[in-house]
Amino acid sequence: TLGTQTDYRDGEAQTDPYSPEYIVRGGSVPEILTLATLTWGRGLPAGQAEMEIIDRIREKRAWEAALPPMDSPSNVAKRLKMMEAMERKEWAYREEEIDKLQKVHMEVFKKLLQRREENRNELNATRLNNHWQNHQKAKEEKIRKIQHDCALMLRKLIAKRKNCMGKLERRDIIREYNDFSSQTYAPLSRIGFFPDNNSDYYAVKNYYVNTFAGLCELEKSVQPSVFPFKIKAPKPKCIITKTGYIKRSGRLEVVVEQVHQ
């Protein structure tokens, strides 16, 4: 039901409320016409700010109705004084509105600055983290290289320690052939051995296969009963005469047989 209400509830298909045509009677000014500038989504439904505007409009209409007529100098002076007081009141209200708008702008500006500062701090933290990770990788690589060089030097020192006195040793052929990691089975390139130069060393080279004379000699050594092949000629599908000509009736029979199949 939640999904159905989400897809088909009234709010999804609601349009602007219908405003019928109206006729104003002569000599009357309906109060509701003062709200004609408000539309749905722009002032409607009315909130606290709209209610304050409506109250100010009512006060102004009551003030206009209370203005004295301009039939005497005293009434004119009184009317001017009331208008000046109303003008000062409107300017004070306008200043108050401007102060409120400035406060709202300042709050929005503070939030934007705070958000920008947070984004900048997050970006700086990400950069520092990446920089630290790169330094850690370089450090680990350097440590790995030092450990590799250390193991290499230790192996060299161990090899030198076996013959620390520098005595000459005779070659032990049995030990070399018994050890599959010796120079006999796995010679090194630094002593002048390059296995790619002798890549065809283990390739099979046969005189009877690689040369024409060897093929001829191999053919002579094979028994004659191997060479003759017994191939049976297929029977013709059509009726063939003695001269080798296929009759028209024979061709038609073959076509009819194929269509029947």
Report on this model:
The chain has a two-stranded parallel sheet with strand order 1-2. The chain is elongated, with a radius of gyration of 55 Å. It has 261 residues and is mostly helical. The mean pLDDT is 83. The protein has eight helices and two strands. It is found in: Cytoplasm, Cytoskeleton, Cilium axoneme. One of its GO terms (cellular component) is axoneme.
Highlighted features:
261 residues, mainly alpha, single chain, two-stranded parallel sheet, 2% strand
Please outline what is shown here:
Pfam families: CFAP91. It contains eight helices and two strands.
| Mean pLDDT over the full residue set | 83
Major sheet = 2 strands, parallel
Instruction: Look at the helices and sheets and give the structural class.
Output: mainly alpha
Give the percentage of residues in beta strands.
under 5%
Low-confidence stretches: none
- Structural Rg: 55 Å
List how many beta strands DSSP finds.
Answer: 2
The oligomeric status of these chains comes to single chain
For the largest sheet, list the strands in their spatial order. Answer: 1-2
Helix content: 55-70%
Distance between the termini: 64 Å
- Shape by Cα distribution: elongated
Order of helices and strands: HHEEHHHHHH
Pfam families: CFAP91
Keywords: Cell projection, Cytoplasm, Cytoskeleton
Protein name: Cilia- and flagella-associated protein 91
Subcellular location: Cytoplasm, Cytoskeleton, Cilium axoneme
